[in-house]
Design a protein that fits this description.
Shape: elongated
Low-confidence stretches: 1-39
Distance between the termini: 131 Å
Oligomer: single chain
Strand order of the largest sheet: 7-6-10-2-12-19-17-18
Helix content: under 10%
Number of helices: 7
Length: 706
């Protein structure tokens, strides 16, 4: 007896029978491609973890799929040092930031592009192609003639730099690592290897020249990796119900309904219709399939199918393909149906005219329903004996749920918005150098940070650090009117429009306001608000206003629609100390984020507002003999909260005031002075002389006399 099955090498048998067998299968079926051996199929976990091991397997990608890749080159961490000067009683600080340049190998097959990129599970690159962190990026598609990467060539030398031709890889240049714990994050890439979905047959053909019929299901993406090409093809065959058959000098995958040859069972030993059926528990009762689900951002999904009846066997298939939950459940159900149908066997005896039928061919038995697949072929009793397995066809779709998934938000970074001003410090610090207060945000909800730079008029730029948390920034739509700084303003409200809909404002009670909550820069006035009501996605109405905070009461008049609004939250404010010599001039401030084609620049006047004392208040005048006695109340940049209820600390090297009246000026060391015989209609101004400079002047006139 001679038997030929799929994995049998065609033997050298003399005569026409041996020649027929050799032509039928021979080396085509049992060549290197399907050489028997231990099967190590692809596993889903191998795509989820980024590696950098020497000799790690590189998958061949098809369709669109998410893959981690392997780091094939990197630099050491690149350290950047930024100094921040301290003020009086406050030491300076040094900030360090880190970046890295590296390359990640993605596919051992050419790809069409890369869409989204995740870093430690968070989106690094969005669907619109925008990066969420600062980095340079280049993608090498895997062309046969692709050049070396210039960054890698510059680092290792052009003669030592491989081009990795035929392999797709991505290069990151100076990726900022602050968001990733100052280390290279674990990256995964949404790789578009082909335009549209791919069939299992197309994958098989690309892997080993295996021909194929139309197979279902169609795959959104597939990763060919594992112990061998055979293991990958067998995985595809199990999922699609395909089997292998001879096809000329090669092999082909066949599956489902197709062309069949009708045969007449001539009987075996005088009997016809020889059948056998295995016990029910020989087939699995439960089958699970692991897959990637695009609806879950390509995270692994698991679907389960069961059959009624006896048995307790469970099987699991790891399919590194992108299919939806319903299709995956249908695949599992179809695999169960095929396994159950495969318990049936049929043996038919044919004449010599059937010698051209080969293992893997479809046949139809005359007078009977159904299609059969030839599993084994043998010569017995002067004829051809075929062992047949029924071809079971099941739907590849079923009702299933992908489950809930917390997807990484894809927020567009947007352009940078910059607010910069010299303001009195609200923390009670007594500064000896002028200080800039900076708040930055973005037009998009994904804005994270920007690099800050300082420049003088006509000079270059100097990096001054980075911004902090995104600020709440907008413009004034309805401006407030004039009010008093000594009582809560309930007569006016402010309508502001924020830069995007995810910026939020909140309420604050009086205790929180007293601690400095809800402090905002409105135009040039510092205002606190107790209530914030959202009127639309971006518009908020602010009320219960505390006006003219930190000595900015001079800016209460003259508000206009369109002026700036910035919430001075402690976690979003950046301060930069300037030299004393800059007072009286201007300073250029610029910020550049990852979506800014050009730096966003502001020119800020340096008036000394952060280092001079606030203007005296409560000016009063009364007649005193032949003159006028002026008095006032001192304010201090170290005593905004007036803790003891008696007086505020001086905070200056000496107490001095400059009083101007009728073209002359008097300097006094007390909070009062007598003006001898001032002219009719007189007007006087008073300024406190601080260590660094004079305060803004307060005014009183003859009409204000008591």
């Amino acid at each position: 007896m001679a038997t030929l099955v799929l994995t049998t090498v065609g033997g050298l048998i003399g005569g026409p029978v041996g020649g027929a067998i050799g032509a039928l299968a021979g080396r085509a079926v049992d060549g290197v491609l399907l050489r028997p051996g231990r099967r190590e199929g692809p596993r889903l976990s191998e795509l989820a973890v980024q590696t950098s091991s020497y000799g790690a397997q590189v998958p061949r990608l098809f369709g669109t799929i998410r893959v981690a890749g392997s780091v094939i080159w990197s630099t050491e961490l690149i350290e950047t040092r930024t100094s921040e000067g301290g003020g009086k009683g406050r030491p300076g600080s040094v900030q360090y930031s880190y970046a890295a340049s590296f390359a990640v190998l993605l596919s051992a097959r050419r790809v069409a592009g890369v869409k989204r990129i995740w870093a430690d599970g968070k989106l690094l690159r969005g669907a619109a192609g925008d990066f969420k962190a600062a980095t340079g990026f280049r993608l090498h598609l895997g062309d046969a003639d692709q050049p070396v990467d210039p960054l890698i060539a510059g680092a290792v030398g052009a003669a030592q730099c491989p081009a990795w031709r035929g392999h797709a890889y991505a290069v990151f240049e100076q990726l900022q690592l602050a968001d990733f714990g100052n280390r290279i994050p674990s990256l995964t890439f949404e790789v578009e290897a082909d335009a549209g979905a791919v069939s299992a047959g197309a994958v098989a053909g690309a892997l080993g020249g295996v021909g194929s019929e139309a197979l279902v299901p169609v795959l959104g993406g597939f990763s060919a990796h594992g112990g061998s090409t055979r293991a990958v093809l067998e995985t595809l065959g199990e999922a699609t119900g395909a089997w292998f058959a001879a096809n000329g000098e090669g092999i082909a995958m066949r599956g489902g309904i197709g062309a069949a040859r009708e045969v007449v069972d001539q009987g075996v030993g005088g009997a016809r219709g020889a059948r056998s059926i295995a016990a029910a528990d020989q087939a699995p009762r439960v089958l699970t399939i692991g897959h990637y689900d695009a609806a879950r951002d390509y995270q692994a999904g698991l679907q389960r199918a069961t059959r009624p009846g006896a048995g307790n066997r469970e099987l699991h298939l790891e399919l590194p393909a992108v299919i939806d939950a319903a299709t995956a459940k249908g695949v599992a159900a179809a695999m169960l149906a095929r396994a159950d149908a495969g318990r049936r066997r049929r043996r038919v005896a044919l004449g010599w005219d059937a010698i051209g039928i080969a293992p893997g061919d479809r046949v139809r038995i005359a007078g009977e329903d159904g299609l059969w697949r030839v599993a084994e072929w043998s010569l017995e009793g002067g004829g051809v004996m075929l062992d047949l397995v029924p071809i079971a066809v099941a739907s590849a779709h079923a009702a299933a749920s992908a489950g809930d998934v917390v997807a990484a938000p894809d927020r567009v970074h947007g352009a940078t918005i910059l607010v910069a001003a010299e303001l009195p410090p609200g923390d009670g610090a007594v500064l000896t150098q002028p200080r800039l207060t900076i708040v930055a945000g973005g037009t998009g909800a994904g804005w994270r940070s920007a690099t800050l730079m300082l420049g003088s008029e006509g000079g270059g730029w100097t990096v001054a650090g980075v911004t902090r948390a995104p600020g709440v920034i907008g413009t004034v739509v309805q401006a407030p009117g004039g009010a008093r700084a000594t009582i809560e303003d309930r007569a006016h409200t402010i309508l502001v429009e924020l830069a995007h809909g995810e910026m939020l404002l909140g309420h604050a009670d009086r205790a929180a306001l007293d601690r400095g909550a809800n402090l905002a820069l409105v135009g040039d006035e510092l205002i606190q608000f107790g209530a914030a009501v959202q009127e639309s996605a971006r518009r908020w109405r602010l009320s219960r206003l505390w006006r003219g905070r930190l000595g900015t009461e001079a800016a209460m008049a003259g508000h206009l629609p369109g002026e700036r609004f910035a919430l001075l939250a402690p976690d979003s404010v950046v301060t930069i100390d300037l030299p004393v010599s800059s007072i009286g001039g201007t300073i250029r401030v610029a910020a550049v984020g990852i979506d800014d084609a050009q730096p966003v620049e502001r020119v800020v006047p340096v008036t000394g507002a952060s280092v001079v004392p606030p203007a005296p208040v409560h000016l009063r005048a009364r007649a005193s003999g032949d003159g006028v006695a002026l008095g006032w109340t001192r304010r201090s940049r170290a005593g905004w909260r007036w803790i003891d209820g008696v007086d505020v600390p001086l905070a200056e090297e000496a107490e001095r005031y400059a009083v101007r009246v009728a073209g002359g000026e008097v300097v006094t060391a007390q909070a009062g002075v007598v003006l001898p015989s001032p002219p009719p209609g007189w007007r006087a101004t008073v300024a406190q002389l601080g260590t660094v400079g004079a305060s803004r002047r307060s005014e009183i006139s003859e009409g204000d006399m008591q």
